[in-house]
Each structure stands twice: as structure tokens, then as C-alpha cells.
Design brief:
InterPro entries: Tubulin-like, Tubulin/FtsZ_GTPase_sf. Helices cover 50% and strands 11% of the residues. By secondary structure, the protein is of the alpha/beta class. The protein starts with 7 loop residues before the first helix and ends in a 26-residue tail after the last helix.
């Protein structure tokens, strides 16, 4: 597909149009959220989340994004990407790189040239490393060193962002989600510092409703990159980093239970705090299939999709059952973890309440209901028929031929008439003959009539006016032709207008029709015109006869007088016509007209053809993608037709055609000048008007058409959805629901636990079905609550703002030792002896009394 560059983003927005599955924005999102991506992996994950949210959220939602990193090239790239609608803009990026850090380790950390307190927490034997603009290079201590060095600037930017989020709240509630990889240098190196600085700022401001959540991605998330996984030394270092990070995070997640505190010192600031690092923290790990580790992009997208739910007003629980309805975000932040010790003590209620701060692991699945894809297919069905109408022949279905001839009639008659006929051109400046006195016989005989001399003077004046007259004729001709072009532009669209013009170079198939063909006929008539001296010969003959004879009879004199007068006028008219035609030829009126028409047609073709082709291709591509999705998801549907059999009428097709024409013509100057055309908004209006006849319960009506045993009409649907109870509708909805539930695949874990551990963990399942499809959702709920699924009623919730069935299993109180990748991280960590980069605090390498990972 070739897309006009300025239109790429606007055409891409066509995918966001909602008619049948339109979602009200009201109360769609859970407000007052700041999501921070640390380092490369954290930044990419949050960027994926922003991409999912950005076209839906409004400033009132107060959902914000931030990236903190040390890699200048990556930050510049994401800022540049933001111009195309992806990435982070300059106000959403904080760099911890400062040029003065580059040589800080040149003479050892204790002799750094910046400040004596910059990194007094680092090992004095830390090797000399040149720090550059390309990040922390996987060294956690370098990441923290860069953060400490830039702390004065960073804290101001970070706190300004926090304050801005808080100032926009009405409830005084702010939730912060920190997303970071744990295997690298920047994210894992500054994770605790960023979290504790946020907590300290909230405490200083006396914010009572500040919650901080973590989302940590383990080293194996990166193993989908072949270059990473095949580098055994790099894999070992990443795993060791991950283990060290989790040991520190574990320690600080339970800091309030210890006689200890967290201390941060920069060049000019010192912070001491004794609170837990996170209110809740989830783990995300890499996953394998038969082909190896799944690419990072899939994992970051899946992680972002769960974070999207935390940003949404997604509820769990059911008001009808013990009023147990909560926001999923509140459930995420609930402190309900427990430890392995608790499990061995048979997890009594008291122990569960006391224990806290272990991780949460999520398994999630979306069972996409393809309403949008179905809508794309229906839109394309109607659009394709309407678009064909833009290429209808105005000669077959309109009066184009007649309209063109009417415009050219005056010139056609002028060029076809006899030379002595009155000139019937409606232009100023022609010789007026009505008030000329007819000469007497005597005057004719004596050659004193002066008639021809008088005409000669009039002809002189006429010749002076000829250029103006021809220009007037041209203006009139072009204006009349343009009126016809405009008429068919409005009725048939630009392609019909091009057809009316009939320029071969603009892609017209039949150039024997149209304005240019008719103008060429006139041009040929003009070229074929030959002046005649017939009336001059008649005058000379009359004068010769009069000179030789004397008519005594009055009737003969009258005939002579009339014949002479008529011949003189016709002679003048013939001369006047000849001069007009000569001037038409000299000024090349028809040639100019042909060139003007050619340019007009080519310009219309240039302006509209590519735009129309791109619009058609964009809508067609969406339909093709929709067809694939529907083919995979709705395999059990009787047919993949979603509108009643009598819905697509000639009237509705014509309405869409009219809408497309209006879109094009209203935006001629925008298309011509390369400005963005609001395609999404305009097409949404067209679609909305077109599908208004479907009425309420649109998504379910489309399912009904697809799953019904026989094809349905509009009347059939109106009867089925005209009352709260309809057995036929219920039966079809049960079949549609069964098609979805039976095809439910296993849930996708965001973090893979070792075999045999899930049953040892406290888990809650949350199932969401869409409230915009109440009859369908009711059927889904009934199936899920029955054998073999046996789901509890209070785990199934109707949710606004969704067209999907989603399931979230949240396992709480998960220790690191239960993770499938725990052993590899522990082994890599134990094997490291001389690598200066694992821990933030080298003095407390093993985080004081915190033991190695435990196993059950």
C-alpha cells in the first residue's frame, strides 16, 4: 500500500472507529496513575502500555508515563518516535546521564573528581571504568552511581511529575507503578532509589493515599534474543544481577519488620527511611515454547496488557453476591501475601494476616470478542459497493452528454450557421443592425447610400473590441464547463467529474465522450471554416443592374432596395463572423480550453486518486485482518455474515457514496496541500449514520445473524430483541457463548512457576465479561458456572469498557524460590566472586541476615 505520508497516522486511526462495539469513555479508566519505566526493558514495557492507552485516555483520566534511563541514544529514539504517535515525548523522559560522570572512576571511586560523598557506598577496589552515553552496560552499581551524580536534577523532575499527578487528583489518591528489568544496570541499579524517593516525597507532603507497586521482569525475559542467549557469559551475568536485585528487593519489601532502614546519599542529599519498598510487587518471567524462549516483545506486550487492566476501571467480584465488588487495581495492592513458613504452619488466618510483602504472580488471558473485526468487515462490504459507485459513468447514469451539449450549443450553432445569418452569441460588442436605415433606390443608383461605408466604420470599432469579446467568450465557456464539472463532482465524485471531462491522460477509458471530445469537434469546425464572397457578389450585381437600368415600377424599386439592404447586412454579418472566427483561432480559444480541461482532469486525478486508493486499501486491509481473526475465533458460526439479509439496500449504499464524496470534496485543499485530512472523524460519522438502523444490542444482533440456523432479516432481529425474554434469542446466544467458552485455551502465565507449586499458593480468579453484550455475557456466565468449569459466581463480573472475556489468576505470597528460573539465578549468583557490580551496597553483599533462596 502506498500511503500519503501526512495521512499515515490518520489512516491508521480507522482501526479505532467503533460503532457496534462503541465504548463510552465515561468512567472507563481508573484515574490518578503514574507508570514509570526504568532502564531499557522497563521503558519498552511502559512504552507498549502507553501505545495501548494513548488513543483512549483523556487528560481528565490523569494517567501519566515516565521513562528514566541512562542510554542517550535510546532516549533520543523514543522522543523521536513520539512524533509518530509512539514512544515518550521529551516531558516523559528523565536522563540520569551527565557528561561529568564519564571519567569519575578514572582514578578509583575514592578519588573521584566530583564529590567525596558521591559513592562512598561503593567498594574502594571498584575497577576503573569509562562511563559513556550508552548506559550503565549492565552494571547495577554504575546505574546507581549515575543516578546519584544526577540526583539534584532528577529528583526535581521526578518530584515535579509526582506533584503534577497529585495536583490533578480530586481524591488525593496517587498510585505509582514502577516497571523494571532486574538483570541490567540502570533499572535494577536505581529501582530502590526511585521507589524510596517517591515514598519519601509522599511522606514529606503527608500524602496518606500514595501506593507504590512494582513490576519486575526477570533475566530470562531477554533470552528470546538469540545474541543474548547464545552468550553464556552474558547469561550468567544477567542471572547473577537478577538474583542480587531480588535479594535486595526482598530485604526492603519487609524493611518495616526489621530494626534497619534504607539510606541514600548523593553529593548533597541524604535520605533515611524505614518503610517497605513496595505495597505490592509482581514478577514477570520469560517463557519457553517448543521453539525456545518467546521474544521479548510478546512478554512486554502481555505485561502491558495486564497493566492496562490496572489502569482501567476493571472490577472483580459481583455486587449480587455478598457485595464483593472491587477494582482490580485495589486487589493488586491488597496486602494479603503469605510465606512458606506460613504454609508449613497450615496457613492459619492469623498468619496470613501477619505475613506480607511476598510477590504476586499473574496468569491472564483475553478471549477477544471480534466485534471490531466484524464491524470492519461490514464496513468494507458497504464501502466497496459505495466506492464502485464513484466510478459510475455519468453518461450512462446521468445526463452528462446532454449537459455538455447544452453548454456548447451556442458555439456549435455559431460555427454551423450560414455566414450571413445573425450571430446569436450572447456577448457584448457585436455590431448592432436593428436601427440601420434602409437606403432608397435613388441613393443606391447614385451610390450615395453610404451603407457599406457605415458598416466599415462599425467593423473598425468591432475589431478593436474583438480581444475583449473573445476573452468574454472564453470566461463564459470555462465557467459553464466548470459548473457542469462541479455538478458531477457533487453527484458522482471526482472520478465521475474526470470522466465528464474526458482527458485520456487522467485514466479515462473512453475518450470519445466528454467535454474534450466535444471541444475538439468545435475546434475542427472552426478550422474547416472558409470565408465566402457570396454577398459581395450579390451587392456588386445589384449595383451593376441599377446603374444600367431605371425601374419605373414601384415594386421593382422596393425589391431592389430590399435586396441591396439585405445583401449589405449579410455581407457585414459574414465579415463579422469571419473576424470572430479568425480571432477565436488567433487566441486559440479551443486549444486553451482543451489544455485547461486537461489540467483540470489531471489535477483532480492527482489530488484524489491516490487519496481514494489509500482510503480503500486501508479499509480493505482492516477487513482482511478482521476476516482472518473472525475465521479463527468464530469457527462454529453458521456463516460469516453479520448484517441482516435486507440491510444493505441501494439507499444505504448511496448514502455512504455521498458521504465519501463529501469527505473528498470538503478536504480538497487539505489533500492538495498535504495537510492531514480528518479521515477517522469523517468516516466514523458516515459509519454511524449508516449503521444506525441496527439499533440497540448491535454486537449481539451481529452474533445472532452469524449463529442463527437460517438467514435473518431486520424484522426477525427486531422481534427477537423487542422483549426481555425471547427463547430463540436465548438459544442462539447460548450457542455463541459455547463457541467462545469451548475454545478457551490455557491461561498465559506472566511468570512461570516451578511444577507443583501452584496448589501451594493462595490464588484468586477474576473473570470479566462485557456489559455491552448482556445476553451473550449471561450465557457465558451460565456456562462457566456449570460443570466442568464450576467457577464461582462472585468471580464473574460484568465490566464496562470492554469487548472481551478476560480471566486473571493472581497468586499471592509467592517467594522467589517457587519461580522456574530461580535455580539458574541462584547458581549464577553463587558462581560470581570478583564481579564488582552485583550489589548496590558492597559492605552488605548478602543483605545482612537475609538467606539465600529457600526451597520447599
Amino acid at each position: 500500500m502506498i500511503l500519503i505520508d501526512t495521512q499515515k497516522e490518520e489512516f491508521s486511526k480507522l482501526k479505532d472507529i467503533r460503532v457496534f462495539g462503541r465504548i463510552s469513555h465515561e468512567n472507563r479508566f481508573n484515574k490518578n496513575l503514574l507508570v514509570i519505566g526504568l532502564g531499557g526493558l522497563g521503558g519498552r514495557t511502559v512504552c507498549a502500555l502507553k501505545g495501548m492507552l494513548m488513543d483512549n485516555i483523556t487528560p481528565e483520566d490523569n494517567i501519566n508515563f515516565l521513562m528514566i534511563d541512562s542510554d542517550i541514544a535510546e532516549m533520543e529514539a523514543t522522543i523521536d518516535d513520539s512524533k509518530e504517535g509512539v514512544g515518550f515525548n521529551a516531558l516523559e523522559v528523565i536522563s540520569i546521564y551527565r557528561p561529568d560522570i564519564e571519567n569519575v572512576l578514572e582514578n578509583g571511586i575514592q578519588k573521584n573528581p566530583i564529590h567525596e560523598n558521591l559513592a562512598n557506598w561503593m567498594d574502594p577496589e571498584f575497577p576503573a571504568i569509562t562511563i559513556g552515553r550508552d548506559g550503565a552496560k549492565g552494571n547495577r552499581q554504575i546505574g546507581r552511581l549515575m543516578f546519584s551524580n544526577a540526583y539534584t536534577d532528577v529528583r526535581m523532575l521526578l518530584f515535579d511529575k509526582l506533584q503534577d499527578v497529585y495536583d490533578k487528583t480530586t481524591e488525593g489518591t496517587v498510585d505509582v507503578l514502577i516497571v523494571s528489568g532486574i538483570a541490567g544496570g540502570t533499572g535494577s541499579g536505581i529501582l530502590s532509589d526511585v521507589a524510596y524517593n517517591i515514598r519519601a516525597y509522599g511522606k514529606a507532603k503527608k500524602w496518606n493515599n500514595l501506593r507504590i507497586g512494582g513490576c519486575l521482569l526477570t533475566p530470562d525475559v531477554l533470552f528470546g534474543h538469540k545474541a543474548v542467549y547464545e552468550d553464556t557469559e552474558l547469561v550468567a551475568r544477567l542471572n547473577a544481577n537478577g538474583c542480587a536485585t531480588l535479594k535486595e528487593v526482598d530485604y526492603y519489601m519487609k524493611l518495616s519488620e526489621k530494626d534497619d532502614n534504607y539510606t541514600f546519599i548523593s553529593k548533597s542529599n541524604k535520605m533515611v527511611i524505614r518503610e517497605n519498598l513496595f505495597d505490592a510487587c509482581m514478577l514477570v518471567s520469560g517463557r519457553k515454547d517448543e521453539q525456545g524462549y518467546i521474544p521479548e516483545g510478546y512478554i512486554t506486550r502481555d505485561t502491558a496488557s495486564f497493566l492496562y487492566r490496572l489502569a482501567s476501571n476493571k472490577f472483580i467480584g459481583n455486587n449480587d453476591v455478598e457485595n464483593d465488588r472491587k477494582l482490580l487495581r485495589d486487589v493488586f495492592f491488597e496486602n494479603e501475601g503469605y510465606s512458606i513458613t506460613n504454609w508449613k504452619m497450615e496457613h492459619s488466618d492469623e498468619n496470613i494476616k501477619k505475613s506480607n510483602c511476598y510477590y504476586k504472580v499473574v496468569s491472564e488471558a483475553d478471549y477477544h470478542i471480534p466485534i471490531k473485526e466484524i464491524e470492519n468487515m461490514c464496513e468494507n462490504d458497504l464501502f466497496s459497493q459505495a466506492y464502485k459507485g464513484l466510478f459510475r459513468s455519468p453518461f450512462k447514469e446521468g445526463n452528462a452528454g446532454e449537459d455538455i451539449k447544452n453548454v456548447l450549443t451556442e458555439l456549435t450553432v455559431f460555427l454551423q450557421e450560414e455566414q450571413g445569418e445573425n450571430i446569436k452569441l450572447a456577448v457584448n460588442g457585436l455590431i448592432q443592425y436593428g436601427q440601420i436605415t434602409k437606403p432608397t433606390y435613388k441613393m443606391i443608383k447614385k451610390n450615395t447610400d453610404g451603407l457599406r461605408e457605415g458598416f466599415a466604420k462599425k467593423m473598425e470599432n468591432f475589431e478593436k473590441e474583438l480581444p475583449v469579446i473573445i476573452k468574454s467568450m472564453k470566461n463564459k465557456l470555462w465557467s459553464s464547463l466548470d459548473d457542469v464539472i462541479s455538478k458531477y463532482m457533487n453527484e458522482f465524485g471526482p472520478y465521475g467529474a474526470i470522466d465528464v471531462i474526458g482527458a485520456p491522460s487522467a485514466g479515462v477509458t473512453d475518450s470519445t465522450k466528454g467535454m474534450m471530445a466535444e471541444v475538439r469537434k468545435l475546434e475542427k469546425m472552426m478550422k474547416d471554416y472558409t470565408p465566402s464572397g457570396e454577398y459581395t457578389r450579390i451587392i456588386d450585381s445589384i449595383k451593376t443592374i441599377v446603374a444600367k437600368r431605371f425601374f419605373t415600377f414601384p415594386s421593382a424599386k422596393r425589391e431592389t432596395e430590399n435586396g441591396y439592404f439585405d445583401a449589405c447586412i449579410k455581407e457585414a454579418l459574414a465579415a463579422e463572423r469571419t473576424k470572430l472566427i479568425d480571432e477565436l483561432d488567433a487566441q486559440d480559444l479551443f486549444g486553451d480550453t482543451l489544455r485547461w480541461l486537461q489540467q483540470r482532469a489531471e489535477r483532480l486525478d492527482e489530488i484524489y486518486s491516490q487519496f481514494g486508493e489509500d482510503l480503500k486499501n486501508s479499509i480493505e486491509d482492516l477487513a482482511n485482518n478482521g476476516d482472518k481473526a473472525v475465521g479463527n475465533i468464530l469457527k462454529k458460526a453458521k456463516r460469516h455474515e453479520f448484517l441482516p439479509t435486507d440491510y444493505v439496500t441501494s439507499r444505504r449504499i448511496k448514502e455512504m457514496e455521498t458521504g465519501i464524496i463529501k469527505l473528498m470534496l470538503d478536504n480538497e485543499s487539505n489533500i492538495d496541500s498535504g495537510r492531514v485530512v480528518p479521515v477517522k472523524d469523517e468516516m466514523e460519522k458516515i459509519y454511524r449514520e449508516l449503521f444506525s438502523g441496527v439499533g440497540a444490542y448491535g454486537p449481539e444482533k451481529m452474533f445472532t445473524v452469524a449463529f442463527a440456523d437460517k438467514k435473518l432479516t431486520e424484522q426477525d432481529l427486531n422481534v427477537m430483541y423487542g422483549s426481555p425474554i425471547n427463547d430463540r434469542r436465548t438459544s442462539i446466544m447460548e450457542e455463541a457463548a459455547r463457541a467462545f467458552v469451548d475454545d478457551i485455551s490455557e491461561e498465559q502465565p506472566l511468570c512461570v512457576l516451578a511444577d507443583g507449586y501452584k496448589e501451594k499458593l493462595l490464588a484468586k480468579k477474576y473473570i470479566s465479561v462485557p456489559n455491552v453484550m448482556p445476553y451473550f455475557s449471561k450465557a457465558v456466565k451460565a456456562i462457566l458456572m456449570a460443570p466442568p468449569y464450576n467457577e464461582k459466581e462472585d468471580s464473574i463480573t460484568l465490566n464496562p469498557g470492554e469487548i472481551e472475556i478476560s480471566i486473571d489468576d493472581i497468586f499471592v505470597g509467592v517467594p522467589v524460590s517457587m519461580m522456574q528460573c530461580a535455580m539458574e539465578m541462584q547458581m549464577a549468583y553463587n558462581a560470581v566472586y570478583d564481579y564488582k557490580g552485583l550489589h548496590i551496597d558492597e559492605v552488605n553483599k548478602d543483605m545482612k541476615s537475609f538467606p539465600d533462596f529457600v526451597t520447599i
